[in-house]
Design brief:
This protein is α/β, with parallel strands linked by helices. It is about 45% helix and about 10% strand. It has helices at about 25-40, 45-75, 85-90, 95-110, 125-150, 150-165, 180-200, 205-220, 230-235, 240, 245-255, 265-270, 275-285, 315, 330-345, 380-385, 400-410, 425-435, 445-455, 480-485, 540-550, 565-575; strands spanning about 295-300, 350-355, 360-365, 415-420, 440-445, 465, 475, 495, 510, 515-520, 525, 535-540, 580. Helix 17 (about 400-410) packs across helix 21. GO terms for molecular function: aldehyde oxygenase (deformylating) activity; iron ion binding; oxidoreductase activity.
Length: about 575
């Protein structure tokens, strides 16, 4: 939102929220009725192209979003080395509004301009006129309109909304108030409607021009330089006919330079070119991949988790995954396609996220495999450590801090807990510590009970009890199914010991989060949610790796080895991580 929002700032359908696509329903229903009554043969090229063109625009934009976020995670050729936060993601969530707006414009033009129905698929003369009109009137008028938008009156009421994003992403390009988009529509109508009225317009001429607008908009708002130097060496005049991401980035950081739309020659003509444009372009091309201090290795869980990745769909990834969006069923083909690509790509990990905590650099690497594809992972790294005893990096499974978080989640003064069907390292460690503290741990599965009893110090076995009748109100465990939950007394507190949340089937019970902590304010570039966790909350397993690196601890934490529980907890508090609940 602009600092002092003016008239027509909000989109007319903003009140509709996630149901805004219903404004296109009449057009879609009209198309369906026309096909049902008159057949596909009745559709002329212009009418048949409208809905597919809108869909292709959305796919085109999403490709740029994914490419940009992947490149930013690598930090290669980065222009502005600053972070993106949730505030920007929320502000840019409505990037598809302009596509809805264009869809309405297409249908109105079809209904009101008779020539549109007679458009051929292609006319070369019309395409040439479109190019000339863009280079002349459109670029010229946009340049001066853009300069006017930077006048205090218009800037505070409209354009400041766009400039709130200092670090731009491709979708930043279309984040403007509704009033601005109306003006842009009138500008871009000059090259599209003029050939139509002259009788030399074509369907592809309009579609390709809009694709050009989208391509240049997205490219210019990337925060990494991708235009190779050889292009300008091969054709020097191109410097005045095509801007670069670094060129437009200066407009977002300096505000009073580089006003041009896509062709910088008006900035050169009116002396508004930023003097550092060439220097920044050269500098950005030299930025190499970042070497992190820490790598968090993960993999996808379910098919839906694909578009919850940071490089996936921003509006989904910025919310907990247990808060599904209405259109998730429509993008199932994307999830299936990602699984196929994962098989083709192989098992090599790729970068999906880059975080920073003061001078400490972190990356997240994803293995392109899902839970149902993965095999048992070498006992939390133990087999890998045994295979490479001289490994210079340290492997951390995070079990020590996860155990600490579970223990701190159990209410103070608890005398009894029920351990349900758990064989995990964290569950066993939690039970052992509770027994050592004199808290009775009750189990009802004999095999698990005997296994855990054998690991307890001789003087503490008295606190481990096998019983099918003594059921307290504090339950811990990895997997507590529906049938087990029904046996819990009213008011039970369920404390998960695994990375996956419990299914909530009891309204009269309390379900705590999976082991996790709030991250410190000093951690930057956090604008996605970690699976089902709330914003700016990170799983204990992941935090443990950060602490390991920050503290310079030299041991591996894998297999049966575990870091000192109190030591890891103290380190977490020391570095600004905070508990979600108070035990």
């Amino acid at each position: 939102m602009a600092t002092q929002p003016g008239p027509l700032t909000e989109w007319p359908w903003q009140w509709m929220g996630n149901f805004k696509y219903l404004v296109l329903a009449p057009a879609a229903l009209h198309t369906a009725h026309r096909v049902a009554t008159k057949g596909w043969g009745d559709l002329d090229p212009a009418y048949a192209t409208m809905l597919p063109a809108l869909l292709l625009r959305m796919i085109h934009n999403q490709i740029w979003i994914t490419l940009s976020r992947y490149q930013m995670a690598r930090r290669k050729n980065v222009i502005v080395d600053r972070s993106i936060e949730f505030e920007q993601v929320d502000r840019e969530r409505s990037w598809d509004d302009q596509i809805i707006f264009n869809g309405l414009e297409f249908y109105l033009a079809y209904a009101m301009i008779p020539n549109v129905r007679l458009l051929p698929v292609w006319r070369t003369d019309g395409a040439i006129i479109t190019v000339l009109l863009h280079m002349g009137p459109v670029e010229f008028l946009y340049y001066w309109f853009h300069r006017a938008l930077h006048h205090h009156f218009l800037y505070t009421r409209y354009h400041s909304h766009h400039h709130a994003s200092i670090v731009t992403e491709p979708i930043t390009s279309v984040i403007h108030p509704f009033a601005e988009h109306v003006v842009y529509f009138m500008l871009f109508s000059i090259p599209t409607l003029t050939p139509i009225f002259m009788g030399c317009g074509s369907v592809l001429g309009v579609v390709l021009y809009i694709a050009y607008i989208d391509f240049m908009n997205n490219m210019g708002h990337c925060n990494f330089e991708l235009v190779p130097k050889w292009i300008f060496k091969a054709f020097p005049p191109l410097k005045y006919l095509m801007y670069t991401p670094s060129f437009h980035s200066l407009h977002h950081t300096q505000f009073r330079t580089n006003y041009s739309l896509f062709m910088p020659f008006y900035d050169y003509m009116y002396n508004t070119i930023d003097k550092s444009s060439d220097v920044l372009y050269e500098k950005s091309l030299k930025v190499t991949d970042e070497t992190p201090d820490l790598v968090h290795l993960t993999h996808m869980t379910t098919l839906q988790s694909t578009y919850h990745l940071r490089i996936g769909i921003a509006s989904i990834a910025s919310k907990p995954s247990d808060n599904p969006v209405w259109y998730s069923w429509m993008i199932w083909p994307v999830a299936w396609l990602s699984m196929i690509l994962a098989w083709v790509y192989g098992s090599s990990a790729f970068v999906i996220e880059r975080l920073r905590m003061k001078k400490f650099k972190m990356q997240t690497w994803t293995i392109p495999r899902y839970n149902f594809q993965a095999k048992t992972l070498n006992r939390s790294g133990e087999l890998f450590i045994q295979k490479y005893p001289k490994l210079r990096v340290r492997l951390v499974d995070g079990s020590g801090l996860a155990t600490a978080v579970v223990l701190k989640s159990i209410p103070l003064g608890t005398k009894k807990v029920f351990l349900s069907g758990s064989t995990s390292k964290v569950a066993h460690a939690t039970a052992i510590v509770l027994c050592e503290k004199g808290v009775q741990v009750i189990m009802n599965q004999k095999k698990e009970y005997d296994m855990l009893r054998s690991r307890l110090p001789e003087g503490r076995t008295v606190y481990l009890k096998f019983s099918n009748k003594d059921i307290p109100q504090i339950w811990i465990g990895d997997r507590i199914d529906d049938k087990q939950q029904q046996r819990a007394p009213k008011g039970t507190i369920f404390v998960p010991t695994s990375q996956f949340p419990l299914k909530k089937i009891r309204k009269d019970c309390t379900y705590l989060s999976t082991p996790a902590m709030k991250i410190p304010e000093t951690m930057e570039n956090v604008h996605t949610c970690e699976n089902w966790l709330p914003r700016r909350v990170m799983s204990a397993w992941r935090i443990a790796g950060i602490l390991h690196a920050l503290e310079g601890w030299d041991m591996h934490e894998g297999g049966d080895d575990m870091m000192d529980i109190e030591k890891t907890w103290s380190a977490a508090i020391k570095h600004g991580f905070a508990p979600l609940t108070k035990g």
